[in-house]
Amino acid sequence: MIIRKMKCLVLVQLIACILFTGSTADDEWHYPSPDPTGVINEPEAWGGQCDSGRRQSPIALSRAAAVRGEFGPLIFNNYKLPIRQALLTNTGHSVQVNNNDTSVTIQGGGLPGRYVLDQLHFHWGSEHTIDGVRYALELHLVHHSTLYPTLNDAVAVKNGVAVIGVLFHVAAQPNMHIGTILETAIDIRSVPGQVAPLKAKLAPNSLLPVNRTAYFRYEGSLTTPACAESVIWTVFPESVALSLDQVDQFKVIHDQSGHELVNNYRSVQPLNARSLVYAREWERASDSASGSASTAFPVMGLLLVLLVISKV
Ligand SMILES: *[C@@H]1O[C@H](CO)[C@@H](O)[C@H](O)[C@H]1NC(C)=O
Ligand SMILES: *[C@@H]1O[C@H](CO)[C@@H](O)[C@H](O)[C@H]1NC(C)=O
Ligand SMILES: [Zn+2]
């Protein structure tokens, strides 16, 4: 009996060992650490498409570099519902909340179809910059196209994945919803792979900016290895507030080598031969035409009257 138990234990350990080394092999990449002055000098050098790709993310966003876009409204379905059985995971590269409710989707806004929310996670130090300015935090809401069964399948296809980026700026007041994430993150902060149920309800909608009528749109990649170029990006120029204390609470989350994950953003990548679109609800040409129509009608009426009179 004892021997059998021991054999069993050895087997369990062996399997655990295989699984563990398997996952570390995939995860053998890291963010370069900032030097003592806070500046990051090293390139990421993650290899593969991360280095050779020409449609990589993040990029430097600016209205000056963008072309005008006009899409239908971006629609968030069931974003106001709290995420069911929400779990927070320390991935060793970020903290992530998974969603497996396929009714939480986005569509419209020029997206080629409907996309299901898979997970949301954070980068401290924003990945995208706007007019050269880096924000304190960036939220990524990662979705896959309903044309594919899973995110894994969709990652291999152009426009298979849609990511919404939300930037956060530092303000005096803490952000209650970020507070929910951080209160749970404390319990899993030192052990990558550890999971904890969120300590309060969290609806994805509560993390979005109020005004979503304006956004940047471009085609790019995942910002972590293997940097697959399958992502249609939407980043709002309107940022959301959180406190400085909250920003610092992200920085004590530990990575897979047991160090504090001080920064987890990738450096901006070249735009190359891509268009950056700035979309908003532009004043419609037809609106201004109908606006002037009311003043044009009496004039036309008068002309008609004059025509009729001249005929008589
Ligand atoms: C969603 O995930 C939870 C755990 O987070 C699990 O209990 C539940 O069965 C899952 N639902 C579906 C539809 O996969
Ligand atoms: C939303 O933001 C856009 C771009 O900054 C602006 O043009 C628009 O007026 C804003 N809408 C509202 C309702 O504030
Ligand atoms: Zn991300």
From TrEMBL:
Residue ranges occupied by any Alpha-carbonic anhydrase domain in the UniProt entry: 27-280
PROSITE patterns: ALPHA_CA_1 (PS00162), ALPHA_CA_2 (PS51144)
Residues in the signal sequence: 1-25
Entry's EC annotation: 4.2.1.1
Protein name, as recorded: Carbonic anhydrase
Similarity comment: family membership: Belongs to the alpha-carbonic anhydrase family.
Enzyme class: lyase
TM stretches of this protein: none
Gene3D superfamilies found in the cross-reference section: Alpha carbonic anhydrase
PANTHER family named among the record's database cross-references: CARBONIC ANHYDRASE (PTHR18952)
Function: Reversible hydration of carbon dioxide.
Catalyzed chemical reaction(s): hydrogencarbonate + H(+) = CO2 + H2O
Natural source organism: Anopheles darlingi
GO CC, one annotated term: cytoplasm
Molecular-function GO term, any one: carbonate dehydratase activity
Reported cofactor(s): Zn(2+)
Keywords in alphabetical order: Lyase, Metal-binding, Signal, Zinc
